[in-house]
From TrEMBL:
Alphabetical list of InterPro entries matching this protein: DnaJ_domain, J_dom_sf, ZUO1-like_ZHD, Zuotin/DnaJC2
GO biological processes: 'de novo' cotranslational protein folding; regulation of translational fidelity
Region spans: Disordered: 163-189, 210-287
Compositionally biased region (Basic and acidic residues): 210-219, 237-265
PANTHER family to which the protein is assigned, alphabetical: DNAJ HOMOLOG SUBFAMILY C MEMBER 2
Protein name: J domain-containing protein
């Protein structure tokens, strides 16, 4: 008979296709069908039915676990099918060498994070998204997953105290060992998830796109500053030339004004001299 800890309760009830998504009603229906088919009473008097009796015990154990919310949660925490799927996580080299790395990336990693999301204490969980996601969306995704708070507890795999032992020391020792093992498994799982997120970040095509967009934005900004600087310089030069022209015009106007004043003064002096000469001439003739 398969060890209870190694038994796949969903598989026993024929719910491998649903697993943690199976509703309580679906579990009850599946259990009822299995009982009707494998109940020992239906095999009464039939030789060689020991295997069916053993399987019936598996069916009852599966129902006991999956019909109890706490026990089911503990089993889901160590779901063997989940661990099998985790073997399908690609390497960085496989992603980069794919025929279409971008398509391969999303087709592969989207379902991986959907599986991981069910273990999050915080809901809803941001999913991987699409290649067109904004920088804020991408940063939000990685910020969440780098700080992922998992409810996986691993107590389902705890070892029981040796059967028939009433020793308190045995009980304390087993509890201490179980606690240590849960902590180790929790630490390993956290490290596993961190490696997954690191890998995803290293091959995420959106990161390259965002960096390229930021580079273009910086260059455009730099170019804009240069153009604005050239425009400002040209404006300053124009202002200086205008001011220079105004100063030259003003200087010329002052010079012309002085020249006119001097010409007027000279004309007046000449008129006075002529007047004086005429008067002297009249005085000489009279004498």
């Amino acid at each position: 008979m398969i060890s209870v800890l190694k038994q796949d309760h969903y598989a026993v009830l024929g719910l491998s296709h649903l697993r943690y998504k199976a509703s309580n009603e679906q579990i009850k229906i599946a259990h009822r069908k299995k009982v009707l088919k494998h109940h020992p009473d239906k095999k009464a008097g039939v030789a060689g039915d020991s295997n069916d009796d053993a399987f019936f015990k598996c069916i009852q154990k599966a129902m006991e676990v999956l019909s109890n919310s706490e026990k089911r949660r503990q089993f889901d925490s160590v779901d063997p099918h989940f661990d099998e799927l985790e073997q399908d996580v690609p390497t960085e080299k496989q992603v980069k060498n794919a025929k279409n790395p971008e398509t391969f990336f999303f087709d592969t990693f989207v379902p991986i994070f959907e599986r991981e999301a069910r273990f999050s204490r915080k809901q809803p969980v941001p999913m991987l998204g699409a290649v067109t996601d904004t920088k804020e969306q991408v940063e939000g995704f990685y910020d969440f997953w780098y700080n992922f708070d998992s409810w996986r507890s691993f107590e389902y795999l705890d070892k029981e105290v040796n059967e028939g032992s009433d020793s308190r020391d045995d009980k304390r020792y087993t509890e201490k060992k179980n606690k240590t093992e849960r902590a180790r498994r929790k630490k390993d799982d956290t490290a596993r998830l961190r490696q997954l997120v690191d890998l995803t970040l290293s091959v995420d095509p959106r990161i390259k796109r965002i960096k390229e967009e930021e580079k273009q934005a910086r260059e455009a900004k730099k170019k804009g500053k240069t153009q604005n600087g050239n425009s400002a310089l040209a404006k300053q030069q124009a202002e200086e030339e205008k001011q220079k022209a105004e100063e030259e015009a003003k200087k010329k106007e002052e010079e012309e004004k002085v020249a006119r004043a001097e010409a007027k003064k000279a004309k007046a002096a000449a008129a006075n001299a002529a007047k004086k000469a005429r008067r002297q001439a009249r005085d000489g003739a009279a004498a």
